[in-house]
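Supplementary Methods. Inverse-folding protocol.

Structures were first reduced to a discrete structure-token string of length 553. This string, shown here, constituted the complete conditioning input.
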């Protein structure tokens, strides 16, 4: 370990802060259960799909006796989906709670994501291994993967592996799809009378796995602070050179939480919120016009530079493009075999245009060739277009440039427009977790163990009151079925955890809209700087602006 940086060495020694109740002996912490719950929608269908786990109560941990917690256990942990800062600390929280309850207990890590539990590819996580990953970013302790746990064969193999190693608890650290799979696995294990408890942890930097009980998903805090540092750097550069417009696409396919949070931290000239685009039924032309108008207004003041933030999933929220993508998803899911026989781009485009509705065919035909190809590219595991491959930032630069040229001809614009494109995504997924995420994730892991030791299967670990100091946080668990509804996937209605979108009547969006007109024409940038790990609480331990505004802090 001689090649470690000074920061890495220091972070190894950082002791995450725990909620007060979790500082007690494990045997003195009990799960206080509330009333029966219902799913967010489709209650009758969800009850039929999850007859053994549906309707479970919300749990909160409190002082009390839990004699079963000290039994020797074997728990297996899975990292599922894309990386998010803090995953290692979730595992550390599970490990420390497990060993504190009984030093003979064992924590296994399934390698490479859900495939590890199917194939029996696992490793024991020991003190030596765990200590090399505490408070660090990435998922490299055991790796991650995107294999979906959904078939009877996969469940049978998973059960066989758990029986072989004596595993009585499985913790799935993942996003909405991964935790949906966890809910299905928990129901199946219970139906088989396996005695294996399945628990989830809320992970995604996109911030769209949240509700009244899950106040934020882990990794969002660190990722947005990392992106905001980069955006602030670009703003400083733009205001220095005074000659470039920077179009920055930010991760967040299904919701604009990242873009909104980064806007609140950095005050860009333009930030598009996908949910507002959909609500106002804005067309692609409307968006281009709005951006061009801001550029022209700044150009009239001699400010031929600026910063625009664009959510990764914007293109799906533009009504006419969203309808096109929906049609393409269903068409290519149902006709995948035939589509694969079309060898030339021309044949593919001709067939697509013939099969689409008239309006969608018109939209498809009007898009640049490169965007068409990206829409027809390989599908994701759910059969949907891979939105991250669509270069929306470059599309907007091209269309805005064309509009400004037309405005010039009419004498409506006499500035200069030179643009640069950026996409921030991977830069934030494996950063050193902020103190908030380090503490939050450690507490989530601790709570996940307590859910397992309490036999609460089909739950997701949760912590409430996150706007307060960590010792005042309230740990517990939420039934996964409570967060679920039915959605169209691969042409079928399937149970999934509902994604949380930006609420246009919510405090974060209102705070943004109160300032955005001023930010558009003035150069009122904010420069968050790098994440700080050591120093005053008001510098190092603060949660996201989104969380503070939502909680009225």
């Amino acid at each position: 370990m001689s090649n470690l940086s000074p920061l890495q060495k220091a972070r190894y020694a950082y002791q995450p802060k725990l909620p007060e109740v979790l500082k007690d002996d494990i045997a003195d912490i009990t799960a206080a259960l509330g009333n029966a719950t219902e799913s967010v929608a489709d209650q009758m269908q969800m009850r039929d799909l999850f007859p053994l786990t549906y309707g479970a109560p919300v749990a909160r941990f409190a002082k009390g006796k839990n004699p079963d917690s000290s039994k020797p256990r074997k728990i297996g942990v899975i990292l599922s989906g894309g990386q998010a800062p803090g995953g290692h600390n979730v595992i550390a929280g599970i490990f420390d709670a497990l060993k504190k309850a009984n030093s003979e207990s064992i924590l296994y890590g399934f390698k490479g994501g859900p495939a590890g539990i199917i194939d029996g590819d696992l490793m024991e996580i020991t003190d030596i291994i765990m200590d090399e990953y505490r408070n660090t970013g990435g998922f490299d302790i055991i790796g991650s993967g995107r294999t979906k746990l959904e078939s009877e064969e996969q469940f049978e193999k998973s059960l066989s592996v758990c029986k072989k190693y004596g595993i009585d608890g499985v913790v799935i650290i993942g996003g909405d799809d991964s935790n949906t799979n966890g809910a299905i696995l928990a129901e199946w294990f219970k139906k088989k009378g396996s005695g294996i408890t399945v628990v989830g942890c809320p992970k995604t930097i996109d911030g769209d796995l949240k509700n009244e009980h899950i106040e934020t998903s882990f990794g969002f805090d660190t990722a947005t602070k990392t992106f905001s540092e980069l955006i602030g750097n670009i703003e400083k550069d733009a205001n220095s050179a005074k000659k470039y417009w920077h179009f920055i696409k930010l991760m967040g396919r299904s919701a604009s939480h990242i873009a909104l949070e980064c806007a609140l931290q950095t005050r860009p000239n333009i930030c598009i919120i996908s949910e507002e685009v959909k609500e106002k039924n804005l067309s692609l032309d409307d968006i281009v016009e709005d951006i061009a108008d801001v550029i022209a207004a700044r150009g009239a003041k001699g400010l031929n530079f600026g910063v625009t933030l664009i959510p990764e999933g914007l293109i799906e929220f533009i009504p006419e493009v969203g309808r096109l993508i929906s049609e393409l998803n269903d068409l290519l899911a149902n006709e995948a075999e035939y589509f694969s026989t079309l060898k030339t781009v021309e044949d593919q485009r001709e067939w697509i245009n013939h099969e689409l509705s008239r309006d969608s065919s018109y939209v498809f035909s009007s898009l640049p060739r490169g965007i068409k190809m990206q829409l027809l590219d390989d599908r994701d595991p759910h059969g949907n277009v891979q939105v991250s491959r669509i270069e929306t930032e470059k599309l907007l630069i091209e269309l805005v440039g064309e509009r400004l040229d037309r405005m010039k001809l009419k004498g409506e614009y006499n500035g200069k427009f030179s643009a640069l494109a950026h996409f921030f995504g991977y830069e934030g997924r494996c950063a050193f977790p902020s103190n908030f995420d380090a503490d939050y994730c450690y507490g989530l892991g601790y709570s996940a163990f307590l859910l397992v030791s309490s036999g609460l299967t089909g739950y997701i670990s949760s912590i409430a009151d996150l706007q307060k100091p960590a010792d005042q946080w309230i740990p517990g668990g939420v039934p996964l079925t409570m967060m679920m509804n039915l959605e169209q996937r691969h042409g079928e209605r399937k149970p999934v955890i509902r994604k949380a979108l930006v609420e246009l009547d919510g405090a974060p969006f209102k705070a943004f809209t109160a300032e955005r007109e001023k930010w558009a024409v003035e150069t009122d940038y904010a420069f968050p700087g790098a994440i700080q790990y050591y120093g005053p609480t008001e510098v190092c331990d603060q949660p996201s602006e989104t969380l503070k505004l939502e909680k009225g802090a």
